[in-house]
Amino acid sequence: MEVENKQIIFKGYIEGPPKETDMEFKVGKKIKLEAPKGSGAFLVKNLYLSCDPYMRGRMRDFHGSYIPPFTPGSVIEGFGVSKVLDSDNPKFKPGDLVSGLTGWEEYSLIYRTEQLRLIEPNDIPLSYYLGLLGMPGFTAYAGFYEVCAPRKGDYIFVSAASGAVGQLVGQLGKLHGCYVVGSAGSSKKVDLLKTKLGFDEAFNYKEEKDLDAALKRYFPEGIDIYFDNVGGDMLDAALLNMRIHGRIAVCGMVSQHSTSNPQGTQNLFSLITKRITMKGFLQSDYLHLYPRFLEDVISLYKQGKIVYIEDMNEGLESAPAAFVGLFAGNNVGKQVIRVAAL
Predict the structure, then answer these.
(1) C-beta separation of 69 from 78 below 8 A
(2) Side-chain-facing half-sphere of 210: CA atoms under 13 Å
(3) Total structural domains within the chain
């Protein structure tokens, strides 16, 4: 059987913020719904696709990162949840549900299986394997427990706190007995942080003319842990407000993703005077912890001790606009594209 395969194509390397026109929605050539014999590959039907800020880095002609750039004229790649239709790989059989890197298209032939995981059916939404139980959730878990080294009673600040990573960091902080404040870019997001996600306080950074003064208002005794998702001016302000022996987990720099000339950080002298530990990390550094993460977070979710917010767009054709919207703060929670029903 041959079917049409709708796809999102990356048109070419970019400078500045991503635009919808940097991508093209097209109907690819018809494909057979089978995995080639002897290939070791398997064919999947993509159900959900993830929009993540790191993908902006793959739109540059830069080969010195931890993940290579996209290939112009080819299908965009990202994390997805998929159903196996046909397989030439003994580890995966038709009907299996998997999460991992796939194409932004209806059907993908997958050869690389590193970091590809089988999903055991349960009563948790499948899309959560792109957020709460996927790369962002594991980033939050590993970053919080391994990089931040939290102690009960710590004062924690989380930027981009309503996003895919930040919302879980804040909830883990509260469960650990910490005081947690988050920043976000709208009054709606601030309200969600305080009413649904359980943050002690939250503020709209767009309404603050002086970020240093804002942090002093919310942390008059200083910050023990800053979980940094944005970099830029917020990181500079946080450095001034850290307590002695504070820890900064540098998870993302979304404020710098859309510029070819990232701004410098001015307040690094605070690292010395306050003996601050500042560490960048990738979730892939801690893959040995993934089974524990899955067990812990599934248990907390089923007990109702944590919640997760998604922003779901319908249809593959909505993917470019959804991805571009990440950089304008249009999404509320984890941005996901529903491509097809199970």
Answers:
(1) no
(2) 8
(3) 2
Rounded Cα distance, 64 and 69, in Å: 9
Encode pLDDT of 272-310 as tens digits: 999 999 999 999 999 999 999 999 999 999 999 999 999
Give the whole-number percent of the chain exceeding pLDDT 90: 85
The pLDDT of residue 13 is 94
User: Residue 102 belongs to a domain with what CATH number?
Assistant: 3.90.180.10
- DSSP character string of 71-109: PTTSB-EEEEEEEEEEESSTT--TT-EEEEEEESBSEEE
Please choose, from the candidates 52, 17, 67, the residue with its C-alpha nearest in 3D space to the C-alpha of residue 259.
17
Do 275 and 146 belong together in one domain? yes
Q: Do 143 and 252 belong together in one domain? A: yes
DSSP symbol at 182? E
- CA 212 – CA 237 distance, rounded (Å): 5
In this structure, the number of other CB atoms found within 10 A of the CB of residue 271 comes to 16
Q: Residue 263 belongs to what domain range? A: 135-284
